[in-house]
Amino acid sequence: MAGMMIAGIANAKTVNFIAEETGEVIASGTTYTSSNYEDLVVMRMYDPKISVQADESMTVTLTAECTTGQDIQLCFGGACEAGQTITKNNIPINGGEAVQCQLEYMWTDGDELPEMVSINLTVKETGVLGGGAESSIVVVINTNTGAVSTLKVDNSFRYADGMINYSVEGATRVELFDTTGKCVMSRDVKGNGSISTEGLGTGIYMYRVGNKSGKIFVK
Question: Given its phi and psi angles, is residue 130 left (phi above 0), alpha (psi -120 to 50 degrees) or beta?
Answer without folding.
Answer: left
